[in-house]
Amino acid sequence: MAETAAAGFIKVIFEKLANEALIKYVRCHGLQSELNELGSKLSQIQALLNDASHKEVTDESVGLWLNNLQHVAYDIDDVLDDVATEGTS
User: Which N-terminal stretch is annotated as signal sequence (predicted)?
Assistant: First the structure.
């Protein structure tokens, strides 16, 4: 289901937030508060995913929302990859 894929992807994003290159980049550019805010928002998304997993089966709109969320997670992942790559340069 979409919830499982999105939840797994959120876990990957959390792991990337702990990447040393990303942390170095964040420190060098004074982005600590933004990174903390992103982590907080991801925690909220994870809680919503847990709730949505029960509703996806009976509510088609929840499935569509989860699909859109998965696309957002891919975009976040791409940005974190770019930042981590720049941090190692």
Answer: none
pLDDT band, residue 88 (cuts 50/70/90):
low
Name the residue ranges covered by the structural domains of the chain. Answer: 2-87
Give the number of C-alpha atoms closer than 13 A to the C-alpha of residue 1, restricted to the C-beta side.
Answer: 18
How many of the other CB atoms lie within 10 Å of CB of 68? Answer: 12
The mean predicted confidence, pLDDT, of the chain is 78
Q: How many CB atoms lie within 10 A of CB 2?
A: 19
Q: Report residue 80 as tokens.
A: 């974190």
d(CA 30, CA 73): 23
Q: What pLDDT does 5 receive?
A: 63
